[in-house]
Amino acid sequence: MHNKVTKAIFPVAGLGTRFLPATKSIPKEIMTLVDRPLIQYAIDEARAAGIKEFIFVTSRGKGALEDYFDNAPQLEAELRKKGKNDLLDLLKSTNMESGAIAYMRQHKPLGLGHAVWCARRLIANDEPFAVILPDDVIASETPCLQQMVEAYEEVGGNMVAAMEVPKDRIKAYGVLDLEEDMGALVKVRGMVEKPEPEAAPSNLAVIGRYILTPGVLQNLSKMKSGSGGEIQLTDAIAEEIAQERGVYGYRFRGQRFDCGSKSGYLQATVAFALARDELRADLMGYLKELISVEKAAQ
Ligand code: G1P
For the whole prediction, is pTM greater than 0.85? Predict the structure, then answer.
């Protein structure tokens, strides 16, 4: 039996410069896909996977995130008075239990690995934990982290979500070197952060979902700088390959959107809107019209 995964770390300290000027005053994680903030998708996915404690690694200017997870008694009272029960239920479904969320500040932007390390005191010595990067939004029938928790219960160790990406995009990712390919699961023998395409050991990239052992936090405390001069989570996980239980990649089922880029964010917006009964027909009509105008102009 492997210890249950009940804590997740959400690194949300990034400046979100790709979404300026919006991110001058709102954290990127509060930006919405249709009407739900990016962070809400990450929380819902974590909850579905059995996560009970949520650790946010934040930075200056992220106050709106803390407010978002506060209860909203005035708003609730107003909706109750007006008999808007659907909205009331919707609001309540986003409420978090008191004490379930912890906020840690990352005081300097030293990299993803450093952000995760900032949460080290909240993770016990023998406790596996999840890391979720809210920029990576994954639409799937079974939420991605839940798929990983199920696989983790079989094999233990450290696990990263993995996806094949085109060669010309590989430089944006952590990349896996495979020891053994077992289908959904792969056993990893090396990991490289943001390699040049010629140097990439495969086209299997790390996507922002991880189940990690506390050993990774110890590795991070060495503060070794890696790709881009930053302290990389990929490097600290790679150090665990030599350990008994090792590192696995998990090819998840689902569609991943890179909401850290404008194009990925827009695609996710369209996909999530089309998945909503009340929006589908209108939006589809509009898209068809656009495409036919585009075709006629060619
Ligand atoms: C981070 C990780 C990288 C991973 C990627 C997935 O990179 O460092 O290994 O492949 O997330 O989205 P970032 O996108 O923060 O540069």
Answer: yes
